[in-house]
Specification:
The protein is of the alpha+beta class. It is built from two helices and eight strands. The strands form three sheets. A four-stranded antiparallel beta sheet has the order 2-3-1-6, with helices on one face. The protein has a two-stranded antiparallel sheet with strand order 4-5. Strands 7-8 form a two-stranded antiparallel sheet. It is extended and about 60 Å long.
Amino acid sequence: MSHFGRTGPPDITDTYSLLVLNISFRTTADDLFPYFDKYGKVVDIFIPRNRRTGDSRGFAFVRYKYADEAQKAVDRLDGWCHSVSPVCLSLNERKVVDGREITVQFAKYGPNAERIDKGRIIEPSSRSRSRSPRRR
């Protein structure tokens, strides 16, 4: 369930999605919200659940409206440094939520994963799906 109640999912077509890994099974959207709200307007927080047990699957999606806000959240909240930059966190500053060190990165979805840039799906190019060789 999202952080914003049972009104249904918000429109996420123009949002930037972050994948939050290594959350505990008892972590809720309300627990994550204060960590991410500092860096911009959070559109939605979704924690996928196991269909049979209803338990959290150990990860979440946080969606921002603007790319710069999402990038700032990744830079400041990610538990691991992927580049050498002044915003990379030292070992003592890694973010811990419910006793676990979280990892935050831009989300990539399914078969479109190669066409995603910073969490936003790029429109597919008009390519033929035919396996036949091109005519010359």
